[in-house]
Amino acid sequence: MSAGPQPTPPLKSVFHPYLETRSPRGKLGHFIWRRRVWLESTFAMTMLDPWEKIVLVTLWLFLTTVIVTGTVKYLPQHLYFIQRRAVYYIMGREGNIGELVHRASAGWGAASGTEL
Questions:
Q1: What is the SS3 assignment for 10?
Q2: Does some domain include residue 2?
Q3: Is residue 12 part of a domain?
Q4: pTM of the entire predicted model
Q5: Does the keyword Transmembrane helix belong to this entry (predicted)?
Q6: What angle, rounded to 10 degrees, do the helices at 97-112 and 50-91 form?
Q7: What is the rounded end-to-end Cα distance, in angstroms, of the chain?
Q8: Cα separation of 13 and 20, whole Å?
């Protein structure tokens, strides 16, 4: 039987459902604890029960995953589509961006007296 208080396992106060009032002694634990305190105090998560925190964090992670996946997967092809539509509206017909730049810059050399 030990007479003194038992040491706290590393990062226990960080990942426990209830927020500890004292920060852990380790640098990593202290850093994560400070971020958790900031997050819970900013969004008033300290007033929620542990099961409500789990539901809220799960919902946030799901929405973040959907947004990041959509951005990574669909944004490049949508930007290509927008570029093609812009070329169509500027040139009046289908074309590529290189042709548009060439047509737009064709008169620049003649206006300044130099050839391209």
A1: coil
A2: no
A3: no
A4: 0.53
A5: yes
A6: 50
A7: 89
A8: 6
CB 115 within 8 A of CB 109: yes
Domain-located, residue 59: yes
| Contact assessment for residue 10 and residue 31, using Cβ atoms and an 8 Å cutoff | no
Spatial distance between the Cα atoms of 104 and 28, rounded to a whole number of angstroms? 56
- Per residue in 61-104, pLDDT (tens digit) is 999 999 999 999 999 999 989 988 887 887 777 776 777 677 66
Q: pLDDT tens digits for 39-60?
A: 888 888 888 888 898 899 899 9
Provide the domain count of the chain: 1
- Per the domain annotation, does 96 fall within a domain? yes
Residue among 105, 83, 115, 108 nearest 96 (CA):
83
